[in-house]
Write a structure and sequence with these properties.
It is built from no helices and 23 strands. The chain has a seven-stranded antiparallel β-sheet with strand order 10-13-22-15-16-17-18, with no helix packed on it.
Amino acid sequence: METDGKKAAPEGPHLLKKDGYYYFMMAASSGAFEGHHQLLARSKKIYGPYESYPGNPFLAQYNEKAVNKHQGHGKMFSTPNGDWYITVITQRRDESLKNSYSKKGYSQLGRETSLYPVIWKKDGWPFVCDKQGLPDTFEFPDLPYTPVKTKQSDDFSSQKLGIQWLNVRNPVYEERRLDERKGWLRLYTGNYTLDDIQARNIVVQRETDKFYTATVKMDFTPQTVEQAGLLCYYDTQTYASYSLRKDGDNGFRLVVEERRGREKIKRVVAETRGINAGVVFLRVKVEGLKRSFYYSTDNVNWHLTGTIENASYLSDEGTPMWGFMGTMVGMYALNYGSGIRIPADFDDFVYSAGR
């Protein structure tokens, strides 16, 4: 396949047979970000030789003003009424705030999915876009509306975690239990810290909205330096945590702490002292780049611990690592070097989209 001399990171092959041709698609041949696009070639024989699509790349975002960028990894398919579409990954950038390490805005949600119509031309080649780029909107397919309900909230009444939950590394199931306290997810305070790549006792799900609220009920009593709580997580160098910790001999405290990824800053943002151990409700309210952290003892009256006004580091552009996974939200329990293994129990995780 001709690559126009751009041979970086070829991946994501797809093969489609239609009307006597094998259509072979290759993604990311020019990198995963600004140069992300898709190449196309075809042959009447599966082993080739293949002829390249005239004017490759077959699919790319040429429009600098478009909301959706970095399209690629496309898969073509036909609908029951015979229309053709291609589904691709894409990133949406919020350009309302920019700084030295991201002059084109931020992608909080990571790679998402876009859909574009495909037109089959008389010469047998499919057409998606020209040098004007891919549109941000188009006419909705003429098909019955069949929404798929996705589950984000969880009362942990099942004996198996829902498919919305992710493990940041291979889980140790003895450290993550649903059968020891009925209706609760139990995370034991595992070794290491949030900064350590070996930390496993973290359960999160993808943020799917730029405006949402996540609330969880937690029952936890730290003994020394252990901590557990609510977590907005990108990776070991990029996160914001809201945790219950021991406060010396004076009881307990809730702490909002951030590690600002590419900026290489780690600091305590705010804390609330004089907290009782045991059951506490934790909440994060996300409003674009702003994140506010609240607690309650009765799930009715809420008190603000602190706000991160600009959490732009929780984005694809804010991490110093590979940035296309998006920010996640969930829970964690770690012992921060004490070696003490105690339970942190979580119930009624509620994710509510909207302002």
